[in-house]
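User: Reviewer 2 asked us to show a designed sequence for the structure in our supplementary figure. I'm pasting the structure tokens here. Could you produce the per-position amino acids so we can include them in the response letter?
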């Protein structure tokens, strides 16, 4: 079978699944308005998808062996397509949340299965190019999702962000039927089901994803819901690890982690997406809340980063067959850390180009990081274990993204309070700058016809409003700085990874 037809076949469902992880975010207000729901209620349309998605990803390798990979892939695309139509047809919030759960179950397997098929279809020397194709979807999806979702919602309605998946899903099923062939080791196998491992994994990952998604909104461990959900998650995951180590047919084969190169690759991937998702969540918030950008202008800042990623992916895909992949990977990590460090220098006076440049650099860094990382991580994995390995790899990638978002939103809130308290401590009526600013604010308001008593108080209000802006800006700087430090700290793991003999 032509390898390029296989690549196109598996990329269609992967791209729409990744887009759907972020497309709802920009339509949330419209969905909330349609169903007269509160903010916390409406966010379950996002959380429900992420939870079911996170649960299925690590199970995809095992489910492929139980049902046969091709059959399971067709089932997953079919469930994703049908549930997308049902999401668009939802009659209330409860039905939408339920259909989003089904959509997450269908979509969870698409990324790891697609990656394993690509790695098996392309020869080892072309794995870099195969991962460049896969990388286009997983890197560009989170960027294009909000842009497409916003445009569709504004020009049509939020229902169409789901309906648009249907024709793509139908086309994907047809292409899978014609172009995907299971190798002998991926045919349906009879095996004893590891019920305990399955149960603990579902509970553990489901609760963990809820903690990450809801933690900041619930004020973390001051909320009994978060505390108990966290306890259940940790307990379940510990029991899962114990059960899997002794299971005859584990749902996730943890022995894969004995491969040191694969283990290091998972750590690097976790923190790479921690950095990526953390930064692309912070950027639009900074632009819209502090700089006054519209959603469209904020999208213009994010979009070119996706283009630079695609360019870097194609270059890295060719370089990885000629140059030591560890050198390219180290270069990508350094570039990503440098780009995020540049973002920590943003100010309230930054112009469009000053904000756009670090995003372009980050996009380049991610492209040069992803290709050599995946090439190295899977270079020593046998083909029959590739499904299990890609499932673990994609799980760690998704958890890295969720953890990054939870981390930066928490830092943003906590450091804004810290800087606000610190700056207020330096505001005193005896300070000459304070006196001048207060008088200028009062004069401006009096010029506009505001009464003298209220204008004096409003003059102080202008100062306090500016103080809040400055405190918020400093919290953004802190968040960007911290994730840049975390990013550069993973550099030593590159040198622990081993090169396969077929790699340059």
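Assistant: Here is a per-position design you can include in the supplement:
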């Amino acid at each position: 079978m032509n390898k390029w037809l296989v690549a196109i076949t598996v990329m269609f469902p992967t791209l729409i699944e990744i887009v759907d992880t972020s497309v709802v975010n920009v339509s949330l207000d419209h969905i909330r308005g349609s169903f007269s729901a509160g903010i916390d209620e409406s966010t379950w349309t996002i959380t429900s998808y992420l939870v079911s998605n996170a649960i299925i990803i690590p199970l995809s390798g095992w489910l492929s062996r139980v049902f046969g990979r091709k059959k399971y892939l067709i089932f997953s695309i079919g469930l994703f397509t049908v549930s997308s139509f049902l999401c668009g047809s939802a009659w209330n919030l409860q039905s939408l949340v339920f259909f989003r759960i089904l959509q997450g179950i269908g979509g969870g397997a698409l990324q790891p299965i697609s990656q394993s098929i690509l790695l098996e279809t392309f020869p080892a020397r072309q794995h870099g190019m195969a991962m460049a194709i896969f990388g286009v979807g997983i890197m560009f999806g989170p960027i294009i999702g909000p842009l497409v979702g916003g445009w569709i919602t504004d020009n049509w309605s939020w229902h169409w962000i789901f309906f648009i998946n249907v024709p793509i899903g139908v086309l994907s099923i047809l292409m899978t039927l014609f172009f995907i062939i299971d190798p002998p080791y991926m045919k349906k196998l009879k095996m004893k089901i590891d019920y305990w491992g399955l149960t603990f994994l579902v509970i553990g990952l489901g609760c963990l994803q809820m903690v990450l998604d809801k933690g900041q909104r619930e004020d973390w461990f001051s909320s009994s819901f978060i505390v108990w959900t966290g306890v259940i998650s940790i307990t379940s995951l510990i029991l899962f690890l114990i059960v899997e180590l002794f299971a005859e047919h584990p749902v996730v084969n943890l022995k894969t982690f004995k491969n040191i190169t694969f283990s290091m690759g998972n750590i690097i991937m976790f923190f790479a997406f921690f950095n990526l998702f953390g930064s692309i969540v912070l950027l639009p918030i900074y632009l819209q809340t502090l700089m006054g950008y519209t959603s469209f202008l904020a999208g213009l800042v994010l979009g070119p980063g996706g283009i630079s990623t695609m360019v870097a992916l194609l270059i890295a895909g060719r370089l990885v067959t000629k140059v030591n992949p560890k050198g390219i990977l180290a270069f990508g990590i350094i570039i990503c850390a440098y780009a995020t460090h540049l973002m920590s220098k943003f100010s309230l006076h930054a112009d469009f180009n000053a904000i756009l440049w670090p995003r372009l650099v980050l996009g380049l860094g991610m492209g040069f990081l992803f290709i050599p990382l995946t090439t190295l991580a899977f270079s020593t994995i046998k083909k029959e274990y590739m499904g299990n390995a890609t499932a673990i790899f994609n799980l760690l990638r998704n958890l890295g993204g969720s953890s990054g978002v939870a981390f930066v939103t928490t830092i943003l809130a906590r450091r804004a309070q810290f800087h606000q308290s610190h700056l207020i401590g330096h505001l005193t009526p005896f300070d000459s700058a304070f006196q001048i600013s207060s008088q200028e604010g009062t004069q401006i308001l009096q010029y506009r016809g505001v009464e003298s008593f209220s204008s004096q108080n409003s003059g102080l209000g202008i100062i306090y409003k500016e103080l809040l802006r400055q405190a918020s800006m400093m919290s953004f700087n802190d968040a960007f700085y911290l994730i840049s430090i975390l990013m550069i700290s993973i550099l030593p793991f590159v040198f622990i990874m081993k090169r396969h003999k077929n790699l340059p």
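For the response letter, you might also mention the following. Confidence is low (pLDDT under 50) at residues 452-457. The chain is about 80% helix and 0% strand.
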